[in-house]
Each structure stands twice: as structure tokens, then as C-alpha cells.
Please model this.
Amino acid sequence: MNINEVPQDKKNFKDGDKAPKKVMYVTTQDGSYTQTQSAGWEAENLALEQAWEEIETQLQEEKILVQENKVSPISYYMKKNRMDLPILASYVSMWQWRVKRHLKPTVFKSLSDSILKKYADAFNISIEVLKNVD
Model:
């Protein structure tokens, strides 16, 4: 792609103009390669907007499950931080089966502060915030 052809369509979602630009490798007039920044192009931005809307919907559904006492707050924050079971288990240095067990509300309520601190640190929040999904 030539440097003059780099798409610069503005984003209409979330961070808008504050959203990070991506680096693209393009050719200059003399045929050499260089880097330039792109705000993206309309089709790409639309796909990203739809993906973020889907993530927000999933988070709202997960919040309802926490409020209905069907899953623990760990499940909500795991989704909010876009983690899966293996990733979270590695962050908190526990076996996956143990983390999966902590996703049960009854087990979560009996966790010690030291274990809750591991989860809070992994999510970069306080223990109080971890306990209270609002």
C-alpha cells in the first residue's frame, strides 16, 4: 500500500479519536518501506464496534448471574478482563480445577482474604470491589 492510500476513517465508538492508532508498513514514492499510523478503515471499525457491543452484552448478562447468585464475582471480573480459566489460573498461581471451584458462589463466600487478594491483584482491583459487583 502506498503511504498516500492509508485509510484514516475516524472511529465512532468507545474511545473515538482517543483510540490508539495502528502501525502499518507502506511504501514511499521511491519504493522503500516505512511505517505510518492509521486510524483504521470503516469496515474494520464497524466490526470492532460490533465486537465491543457483544462484550458489553456478555458483561451485563454475567453481572445478572452474579446478582442471582448463580456464579461468583470472579466469573464477572474474569470476563471483564477477557481472561479464560487457564489464563486466570496462571495469574493467581492455582490449579484450574481450583479456580473453577471458586466460581461457585458458596465456595467464593468462604475464601480467605489471602486468596481473594490474589484474585483482586490479578484483576487490578481491591478485595472490596471484587466482593461487590454493582
